[in-house]
User: What shape does this take?
Amino acid sequence: MDGGARYDGYRRALAGERLPAAFVDLDAVDTNVAQLVAPIRAAGKALRVATKALRCPELVAYVLERAGASALLAYSAAEVALLAAAGHRDIWLAYPTLQARELDALAAANRTATAAIAIDSAEHVVAVAAAAARAGVVVPVAIVVDMSYRPLGRGPHRGVRRSPLRTPEDVVALAEQIRARGELRFAGLLAYEAQIAGLTDRAPGARARNAAIRAIKARSAPHVRQLRRACVEALAARGVSPAIVNGGGTGSIAFSAGDDALTEVTAGSGFVAAGLFDDYAGFTLMPAAGFALEVTRAPAPGIYTCAGGGYIASGTPAADRLPRPWLPAGVELLAHEGAGEVQTPIRAKTALALGDPVLFRHAKAGELAEHFNEYVLVRGDRVVGRAATYRGLGHAFLG
Ligand SMILES: Cc1ncc(COP(=O)(O)O)c(C=O)c1O
Assistant: This one.
């Protein structure tokens, strides 16, 4: 479908909606699910769906159903409690906390679900074990391995700053601390390679940077494979084999599916194809989520001002964190104004009328849901449902 037909379809679907509105195109989600899941299944691995990219219980359930999957990667303990209460049975909290109230919620979720927490330190062990004891349950824990890449073992550091555990010995030592605690069960490894999955390498107008990132990815890939394998082997040699070894993200599905050390691969953002995921060399997804703003002014020929729109993505501040004008084709932000607190001017090649919608995509997947109470669910040119976001349900899990 060309841009004109797509715009007309969404415009018909959203006619009568209060703008700004956030929407999800379920046909495009279906296409993305099929594309992302195929290599994971072909490699005989499981998929774990990253909820932070969706932040909407109905959409989480929809993606799981389409993907034929049941495992979730969550981002807050209170969220884990919500997901367990909604009937999910296999949840990993990917980011640790030491807060007793949060850990109590996670421990309690283990009464109905397997609700593991990812940890990387002795302090985490003590805090999670205390919560498990308070709840009278055994809490599964996963160890987070730092998969970042440092040429020659020193710097510069390529990857995220999360776990301090960099060697198989580090990992075995923590696994043995876990084994020594009756309140805990060792569930596996979380070995996410952010420098491969999370860095764009086909960004427009950034030829030198793209080449540098591709080189980092290529050089760090053997290191990632080798470290994962070494951790699994070291744990097995001490009698603490990890039942689950998780890695990957939307940006590294092919690489992760091909890594024998992994038993499962995570994906989230790719199901809705957030804007940043246009900028990867290895794959092309269907834009599946966006927001519509109302054109309220026409301050100059070819320039239109929309109400709202300043939904800036987190991460290193740069132009790629701005919302991406999407439809009608040819719309673009103005460099000197960007996307504003209450107004976003755009330049358009197509003539627009006051009251028309202009469609944008958020740079990151889940953050769109922090700005809206619901997603309007669209198929073709029709609204087929509405799904409350976490925000719409009154949750600000990391807010
Ligand atoms: C632990 C972990 N796994 C996987 C991912 C990838 O998720 P996505 O597919 O949304 O990029 C992330 C993203 O930050 C993550 O933190």
